Amino acid sequence: MVQKTLRVGVIGLGLIGSLHARIVAECANAQLVAVTDLREETAHATAKRFGCAAYTDFRKMCDQELLDAVCICTPDEFHLENAEYAAKKGLHLLVEKPLAANGDQAEMIVKHAEQAGVRLMAAHVLHFDPRYAQLRDAVRQGRLGEPIHMFLRRTNPRTNGRRLGGRVSIFHFIGVHDFEMLCTCMQSRPTCAYAQRVSKVNADIGCEDTVMSVINFENGAVGVIELCWALPENTALGINTYAEFVGTDGVGYVNIMDQGVSIITENTVEYPDTLHWPEYNSRIQGNLKEELHHFVTATLAGEPYVTCLDTAVDAVRVIDACFQSIETGLPVKI
User: Fold this and answer.
1) What CA–CA distance (Å, rounded) separates 151 from 141?
2) Sheet holding 30-36, edge to edge
3) Which distant-in-sequence residues (6+ apart) come within 8 Å of 294 by Cβ?
4) pTM as predicted
5) What angle (nearest 5°) sits at the alpha carbon of residue 284, between those of residues 40 and 301?
6) pLDDT tens string 276-302
7) What's the burial of 149, exposed, middle or buried (CB within 10 Å: 0-12/13-18/19+)?
8) How far apart are CA 231 and CA 99, in angstroms?
9) Total H helices, total E strands in the chain
C-alpha cells in the first residue's frame, strides 16, 4: 500500500521554522504531527494553532511521536546534532540552508543519512524560484554552452546586518543561496576562493558591510559574488538580487528588484515580497511552499529531489575558504 500522507515534525520555530510548520499544516499530503522549540511558550502556541504536539527537546519528539520526517530549522551550528539523531530514528530529513555550519559537518550529515538509509534534502529555495530555476535549466541543457563566468549579487538593508551580525555571518544568512546556485550552474567543482571584506557602517558591532568573493572552478570558469547588508535603513527593497551567467554560446540574466508590486502611502514606499513566502488568499504561497511540497511529494513517491547534496556541501566548503581568505588576505584552495 502506497503511503499517502507524510507525518512531519518541525525542529526550531524561528521565522523559517514557523513558516515550515504552517506550510506543512496546509499541505494536503502532509500532517504536522509535532513541533519543537527551546522556548516553551512558542512551542505550545504553535502546537495550539495547528493542533499538534509541542516539545522543547527535539529528541523526545523523535522518540515519542510517530513521524516519517523532520524539518530542521534550527541555527546552523545545531544542524549536525539534529540530523544525526533524527536519522538514527529512521526519519527523512529536510535541512534548511546552509546544510551545516562548515564543510566537515555538512559531509557528516550526508554520511549519517546514508548510513541510516534515510532521505536527505538540502533546502535551497532558489531552485523553486522560477527565474533562477529557468536560468539553471538553460545551463544544464547546454543552451548557453560551457561556463565562462557567473556573477551574483544579493543585498539587504543594514537592519539585517545590525540585527544578526555577530550571531550569523553574511555568508550563511544570505550568501549561501548564491554560492550554491553558482556551484550548480558551473557544473564543476570549486578549486579556490579569494574574498575581501569592508566594514564601515557596521564597524561598531564588528560586522561586515560588504564581502566580494572570487571563486575558481576545475573547468576554468570563474564566479564572483557580491554580498551586502549595508543599504540605508529606509531601503524598501528587502530582496534585491541579480545573476548573470556567461557561456560560450549565450548569456542568461536574473534581475529582481521591485518584484512588480508597489505599495505607496504619504510616508512610505513598500515593495512587498512576491517571491519567497507571500501570504494571499489566507495561505502561504511562493518558493518556500513549493520547496516543502516538493519534499513531501518526492519523499512519499521515492523520487529524486530537485536540489543536490554535492552542491549544498560545496557551497559550505567555499564559504569556509572565503572566511580563511579574509583572515589571511590570500586566495585559499578548496
Assistant:
1) 20
2) 53-55, 30-36, 6-11, 69-72, 92-96, 120-123
3) 128, 305, 306
4) 0.94
5) 90
6) 888 888 888 899 999 999 999 999 999
7) middle
8) 27
9) 11, 17
